[in-house]
Design goal:
Strand content: under 5%
Oligomer: single chain
Order of helices and strands: HHHHH
Largest sheet: none
Shape: elongated
Radius of gyration: 28 Å
Distance between the termini: 48 Å
């Protein structure tokens, strides 16, 4: 992937005296700049071509970009897999409170 790098410093041309040949802005200068911009844009991925979760899991679309779950999808999937405990822990004013263990003594690590 290419990032855009400015080739011509058009602002510097403003400081040149009238009649200086370097003060002239030629179409070729713009061509170079626009070509650099076009290259930078076309070398980036197309965010409209991200694989859906179904496509990613089935592998049915070889041209779509495979990405990890988006954060909100990941949080929902993680929460569902962990019986909602993530939101329960997040809601606690005191994460060390034993009520998250149902009144049991929390296990200690060695």
């Amino acid at each position: 992937m290419t990032d855009f790098t400015k080739t011509t410093n058009f602002t510097a041309k403003d400081n040149l005296t009238t009649g200086d040949a370097l003060k002239v802005i030629k179409g070729a200068y713009f061509d170079v700049e626009f070509d650099n911009i076009a290259t930078a844009i076309t070398s980036k991925y197309d965010s409209g071509n991200l694989a859906s979760q179904v496509q990613a899991e089935s592998g049915t679309n070889p041209t779509a970009l495979m990405t990890p779950l988006r954060s909100e999808q990941h949080l929902a999937a993680y929460n569902a897999d962990n019986a909602g405990i993530l939101l329960d822990l997040h809601a606690l004013a005191d994460p060390g409170a034993d009520r998250c263990w149902g009144g049991m003594i929390a296990p200690t690590l060695p």
